[in-house]
Amino acid sequence: MEAIIAVAREIRETIASNVPKEAEITKVDFEGPKVAIYTKRPQVFLENDGELVKRIAKTIKKRVIVRGDPESRLNEGSAEEFIKKAVPPEAGLKNVYFNDVTGEVELEVLYPEKIPPEVLNRVFFETLWTPRVLRKPPVHSRTVSEIRELYRASKQERIDFLRKLGYKVYRKPIFPADRVRIVSLGAFHEVGRSAVLVQTPEANILLDAGLKPTGNGDELPLFDLPEFDLESLDAVVITHAHLDHVGALPVLFKYGYKGPVYMTEPTLHLSKLLFEDYIKVAQREGKNELYSMRDVNSLLLNTYTLSYGEVTDIAPEIRLTFYRAGHILGSAMVHLHIGEGLINIVYTGDMKYARTMLLDPAYNKFPRAEVLIIESTYGSKSDVLPSEDDAKLELAKIVLETIERKGVVLIPVLAVGRAQEVLLALLDLMKKGAVPRVPIFIEGMIDEVSAVHMTFPEYLSATIREMIYRDENPFTSENIHVIRGEAREDITEKKPSIILATSGMLTGGPVLDYLRILADDENSSLVFVSYQVEGTLGRKILQGLRKLSFTDPSGKVINKDLKMRVYRVEGFSGHSDRRQLEAFIRRMEPSPRTVILNHGEAGKIEEFRRYLSSEWFKKKTGLNLDVLTPKNAESIRIV
Amino acid sequence: MEAIIAVAREIRETIASNVPKEAEITKVDFEGPKVAIYTKRPQVFLENDGELVKRIAKTIKKRVIVRGDPESRLNEGSAEEFIKKAVPPEAGLKNVYFNDVTGEVELEVLYPEKIPPEVLNRVFFETLWTPRVLRKPPVHSRTVSEIRELYRASKQERIDFLRKLGYKVYRKPIFPADRVRIVSLGAFHEVGRSAVLVQTPEANILLDAGLKPTGNGDELPLFDLPEFDLESLDAVVITHAHLDHVGALPVLFKYGYKGPVYMTEPTLHLSKLLFEDYIKVAQREGKNELYSMRDVNSLLLNTYTLSYGEVTDIAPEIRLTFYRAGHILGSAMVHLHIGEGLINIVYTGDMKYARTMLLDPAYNKFPRAEVLIIESTYGSKSDVLPSEDDAKLELAKIVLETIERKGVVLIPVLAVGRAQEVLLALLDLMKKGAVPRVPIFIEGMIDEVSAVHMTFPEYLSATIREMIYRDENPFTSENIHVIRGEAREDITEKKPSIILATSGMLTGGPVLDYLRILADDENSSLVFVSYQVEGTLGRKILQGLRKLSFTDPSGKVINKDLKMRVYRVEGFSGHSDRRQLEAFIRRMEPSPRTVILNHGEAGKIEEFRRYLSSEWFKKKTGLNLDVLTPKNAESIRIV
Asked: Which residues form the Beta-Casp domain (chains A, B) (predicted)?
């Protein structure tokens, strides 16, 4: 990789001829999709609001970062001393880590927002170490610290990956991007195992790599389809940390994928947590493990995180930008710009086009967008959900009645997203006195997810973000009891109470234990707050199943009649309902010409297609959309 | 391959337990998709109208042929003596060839129809050689004799291929055929480079492998599409011998394809001729040759010919049957039966649903058919062609007027099909006195194609077939002069005259020489009688191009204004016009549920789709068709 290949040489020559002598450049190399310029005098590049960096970036059409020349850097001891003096005490500097491979210095602080930018510049110019500010969450998060430690421990491996990535992203294309195909690997005419392959003659980009939860194990996307070739995969882009979008990602690494994965930083953290839990549950339940922690670590080290709005080259002639999706913490919509103006694709992933307590709504103004791939979970005309406020009232009623009966409210939740939303709702109801302060039991994993939320307040709604800035923990109160190893039989004894447990569709996890114990208690309630995929136990119960069959910890099969009261509270959904889907399409800027519906049951997809193609919709909106509804295992051309 | 694999063992055991002792079976093996039973007493199998063979075939669900035990065969000398006595003299026995590898004896006779079946049985029972009757054409055909010689010289190679094929066709499938895809490799939203891949999880069948003629060389189908993998290709099925359907076939062998090709016997012969001509023209014109005669010979030896109506297994759970297409000699429609009743596909290839002088119309009653892939060359509402009789009158008028001006009628023809049809029309007009008997010049290749027609009278219309049976050559008269090496300048001197020359779309071949010489002769006429593909010189002239540029034999570029009168006579087309396409769909039995339109320009395809999907068409016909118009490089699911 150190061989000077054509592209790198061109870039070096362009930079050399554009920079004044006094800049004292000592090296130019790739660092992922960015070009890193090593210099003895970073101030030449960054003064005047970084005018020189901007000019270089414009000329070479690549993003540029400036790094201090390794020889000229201040020694770590003196640099640390300088940093400790420079950073204002109110920022709460906790730790300083030097990465001698990249020349970065990590400042772990309690309040990153309290360090003025000029302080960081001063640190850089004086020490030649590039400061990188990390938030230290107010509560301890195992996930956050483990990921930070992993990267620190693997700094050489990581920089090697980034250099290789740069060379690959900027390779000279052999074929022109004159044909673009959408290959349906999963979540077309179904919900689950999301996987969309965007294919040009030169590049292959996989959007999401999910699992489909079913009654018997999980189904992978159609990775055996001839269109999909791991060897020629350029990038995997993950929209958010739910197993039906990210669950198959470690499998790709197990199969031998060595390329990059793009996601937001919260998604990276939450995904790690999901994978660990998945392996743990599989082991406990004696299921076949699809992958191991080794595969998870490979993928963590091959992940390149992006913020919303950050434009990045991910293959020759393909640029990726994430936009806010409003679904869960860090959830993103994908914008791909292909072939210098040839075509632009927006893939929504899971998306909520409405404000929630936790998150701002999905964004829908794009620089360009001809093709929209939109989720259709609630694509049927009848899929109109109540507002979150109404849902809260309904939940309050169920909780109140169950408390009066001295029962337990058991709420199956996805660890990520719904759990936090429901927790916030319950705390708010208790605060307002609408519901008595009964104990709320949550499994440890849900608590860890809340801690990750507090590490990334920039991704949350203004209200919650402000609480975190003010050092208030929005997810805790005295009533919340985090379960750490207590026997589940004992927990259920404490009545009345509320229990939040995973998995959200009753396909595994601790919730099944609680359900087994509580099933024949007619005073207790089972409350579904999220979408139940076809074939899951959750869906079956909603469809009327009352004869349940469990395996207890000793391996004995236990049959029980479900006597709990079963409720479905819909307003907490992280998905847009039918009205919101329609509004998203109507208000999207610019209007797309082609809309591809995915992530929905076949019937809902067809119904939504008919509606969007109808004369009525055309007249009402003035939109003449080409609405496509490919099935899994189809490949369609958009150019 | 000699190892007894599971399938073969099963078959052998089934046969052994179903056959009486006195049959004296000595060996059972595959011979292509058929199971060959070697026996000392073939009469046991074939007596009572072959009752035993039929029973075995029904039990093992495979086609069965009976071969004499090699040890017990009569020696070749005595066998030949026996045959010469047994065959009635009126059959005109000319040659006898023994194939000691397969145990067949070829009887080359002038009139195969004059040998009663019982004579052949007697030859078999007495000599233990299986008689195979071949027609010796009344005029010499280089193609026919070369192909027969090739097979005789490669008898061991051929039987090895057939055995291997049998094992491959009858392998135990690993995946169930629960998904069937149509992958568009060529001729979707265009005319030319026909190539349709039918793909199940277990098998890959390529229907046609054509080239697209263009202004600059020929375009291959999208063989670089990831769905297409030469290694896992099970079979290539060719509908007819036109380069836009068969022209890329030798390229597959050049790339390393080693599997079987299925076509009719006339298609095999005509294709060989086309390939030779293609190579010759390419060499003469200094173009890049896409393949060599070595590749052509490989494909000839890997071809398995089928008659119309013959049902054959070509892969596990896939059965192929050819039906008459009415387009050119030997042209076939493809019927695929997939997965024990899962789905049936009819692919028309090029098809004429009307009687012509030369051929009976396309067949359209099938045992089952859910999906129809139909050509749409004339899919536009305005594509209504005159009848062949009207076309003849129009041609007569043009010829008469040109003769009066003492000019030359230059007719660019595809060597195969249109040339014979136009020749028949001209001869008929002269016979009836509608046109004076001026000389008709044809290039040697067209004459050779006519000779191939006379070798396969069973594939022709009743009238022409009867002429051949009566030993009349329908394609000759005193006026026809076959050009063999004469200077083209000299030919054009003989005015008035008619010249038929290839290629039919002015993309190369001798017609370009004649056009160069005659271009500025305003007394002469240029008459197009077949479809002109977009981008070809023929199409451009029809669109008004009059400034032509040629390279003369010395390599000099010559610019000429086209002063010839340009005509287009449409009724000789080998394609169905719009009314015939519609009639074919309406009258097809059973009615398909899905109709896929291909082999048409994008505009015509769209127009035809709109019509077939319209309420008007539904009401008129009662058909509620799902009409699909995939583009090249799309993969759609039909199951």
From this structure: 419-541
